Amino acid sequence: VLGAAGRFGVEEYSAQGAIVLNYTERTDGEFVRTILVQKMRGHRHVFGWREAEITEEGFVVYPNKKVSTL
């Protein structure tokens, strides 16, 4: 069905997982990096935007820090 594959077309449909990275303004006016796991076949995951940051150790996701946006 044409158009049913999603925002990125057949690539998203055939992929095992899809994540979205963003830079979001919180309700307090601060900008933070955020991540959304849109799909992850065969694995349970938490839905919703979560705070993340890039550190010297790598990319860190804070699963308990749900981001409230404007």
How much helical structure, as a percent, in the residues?
A: under 10%
Order of helical and strand elements: HEEEE
Please tell me how large the radius of gyration is: 14 Å
Strand order of the largest sheet: 1-2-3-4
**How many angstroms does the end-to-end distance come to?**
35 Å
The largest β sheet comes out as:
4 strands, antiparallel
| Arithmetic mean of pLDDT | 78
Task: Say how many strands there are.
Answer: 4
Low-confidence stretches: none
Helix and strand content put the structural class at mainly beta
Instruction: Please count the helical segments.
Output: 1
| Beta-strand percent range | over 45%
| Outline | globular
How would you describe the overall organization of this protein?
With 70 residues, the chain is mostly beta strands. The radius of gyration is 14 Å and the shape is globular. The N and C termini lie far apart (35 Å). A 4-stranded antiparallel β-sheet has the order 1-2-3-4, with no helix packed on it. It has 1 helix and 4 strands, in the order H-E-E-E-E.
Task: Provide the fold topology.
Elements: H1 10-14, E1 17-25, E2 31-40, E3 50-55, E4 58-66
Antiparallel strand pairs: 1-2, 2-3, 3-4
Please give a quick description of this structure.
The protein is mainly beta and 70 residues long. The protein contains 1 helix and 4 strands, in the order αββββ.
